[in-house]
Amino acid sequence: MDATQKKCRSLMEASITHLKRELARIRTGRASTSLLDEIRVDYYGTPTPVAQVATLAVPEPRLITLAPWDAGLIPAIERAIQQSDLGLTPSNDGKLIRLPVPPLTEERRKEFVKQAHKLGEEARVSIRNARRDAVDQIKKLQKDGEVSEDDAKRAQDSIQKMTDQFGHQVDEILKRKDDEILEI
User: Fold this and answer.
1) Which fold has domain 33-100?
2) Phi first, then psi: what are they for 113, rounded to 5°?
3) Could you please report the per-residue DSSP string of 140-169?
4) Residue extents of the structural domains in the chain
5) From residue 23, how far is each of 3, 49, 114, 115 by CA, in Å?
6) What integer is the mean pLDDT of 94-109?
7) Which residue has better confidence, 41 or 1?
8) pLDDT at 182
9) How many Cα atoms are found within 13 Å in the side-chain-facing hemisphere of 109?
10) What is the CATH number of domain 2-25+105-182?
11) Are the C-beta atoms of residues 31 and 24 closer than 8 Å to each other?
């Protein structure tokens, strides 16, 4: 039963980690290098993360700068950014690419909040699935006679408490992200 509970906890923690990673990619009004995490640049025929071919910086709250290590990559980096769904327009001076992050419109903010809540619901579903699998496993152990009814009940209660904790954690993460998105 301990192994089942540990596996359940690790699955729930993975759901939270995934949620945080996905929410980091949602654009807020502020500049952040995490916006560029998923952008791949064609580097000599290999799709390479932009962070591996340039130095990323946020010198101002609404500006991201990219300093490519190879000046010949500037057009490829600009093309990759324009083809992404970030809605950012790069400009360069031959050595440095500047990405101004415009303030979000109210409509766009609401879209991002909806997107964040959708990701939160996916995390909750994942957490509930982990709970269901663990409870099913415990019921199977009880049916096979390996665990007493009282122990099975205690384990199920423990897993439910764990599920509630992780659900509350999702709510807190979403509230922080909502505040960040709606901040003007």
Assistant:
1) Gyrase A; domain 2 (3.30.1360)
2) -65, -45
3) HHHHTTSS-HHHHHHHHHHHHHHHHHHHHH
4) 2-25+105-182, 33-100
5) 30, 19, 12, 9
6) 87
7) 41
8) 84
9) 15
10) 1.10.132.20
11) no
